Amino acid sequence: MPSAEGARPVGRGPKVRAAVLDATLAELAEGGYAALTIDNVARRAGVHKTTIYRRWPDREALVGDVLGEHIAMELPIADTGSLAADLQHLAEAFVAWVASPPGRMIFTAIYSDAARIPGIAETRRELFEYGPRRAGVVVDRAINRGELPADTDPAAVIRTLIAPIYFQLSVLGEPPTKTTAAQSAQIALSAAQAGVFSRTAAKRT
Amino acid sequence: MPSAEGARPVGRGPKVRAAVLDATLAELAEGGYAALTIDNVARRAGVHKTTIYRRWPDREALVGDVLGEHIAMELPIADTGSLAADLQHLAEAFVAWVASPPGRMIFTAIYSDAARIPGIAETRRELFEYGPRRAGVVVDRAINRGELPADTDPAAVIRTLIAPIYFQLSVLGEPPTKTTAAQSAQIALSAAQAGVFSRTAAKRT
């Protein structure tokens, strides 16, 4: 939104916006949130910094905006008729996403100090909490086919599939591979089959 | 180490050092690395900032030092004669550690922009790579008792136990509980029993 004083339109709007957001993501990935400055974003985007200030009051607004744009990760959800294969597809799609340029940049950003911005915490929950809930449909189908106990918690299965991939990337600092994906899918599958995610079992502990 | 010009001893050495490191950890936990300043550390520690600069050239050195001091997390490694119980003990000890004040502060620090300091990355590896390797002895014992396939990768079992606890804390932002610990131990156990961490199985994928 242009400020009251800057009544003239700011160049070619959507193009400028895209350039600024791309530059922000690149700066974040390179130097983290601590080192992010509007000056550097402006330089990289090839715009004057007043152009940025006209649209974004501060760097928090900029970062919130950029992650909002890139969060639309829609993992393809397979329906092969077998839970093992569905989980394997899901794990591979997640591994591919975290290895992609937007995936990598978003990971870097949400684990910089930018994570202290409330909007970023929300982005992280979207990725890792609501996402698994949506993908839980592959577990629902397996329950309906009689492959798993009826009281299996679908989101817990998906979180278990994601956790090792996430761990390898963010803790060990090693890019997850197809082998990581296969093993993560097998961990989630064998635990689910053993009844670990059965809601009554959880209550018993 | 005192600088060449400051030949006099700096107050009561170890006491000052402890106060400065405590203040650094508290500042990190409160505001992250991005907001960490020598000024604030000095104010919180109740020392003059030249006292800090005499020992630590910059904030990176300070943060590296503070994490080095607190990293000595020695998880008690049980030997109950049952893998299920040993894993459960390990998971509970890890959950207790991440909930403790030093555990919480270290977690906050290693996931701030301070993580970009090479020394911090090393700290994280120490926590999550060498730690699991040491704890792998409970898996070795289970293999010797015939509880698991002989070619099970011990560190992979321990990482699988840690990953969900870590995921809940750092992604979902929820403090892990005894239930988390029990479920994590069961996930690692059932996957290990199913042969997921068998080294030949990994090669087949």
TrEMBL record, chains A, B:
One GO molecular-function entry: transcription cis-regulatory region binding
DNA-binding region: 37-56
Keyword line: DNA-binding, Transcription, Transcription regulation
Keyword Acyltransferase: no
Residue stretches making up the HTH tetR-type domain: 14-74
Transmembrane portions of the chain: none
Keyword Transcription: yes
Pfam families per record: TetR_C_11 (PF16859), TetR_N (PF00440)
Full protein name: TetR family transcriptional regulator
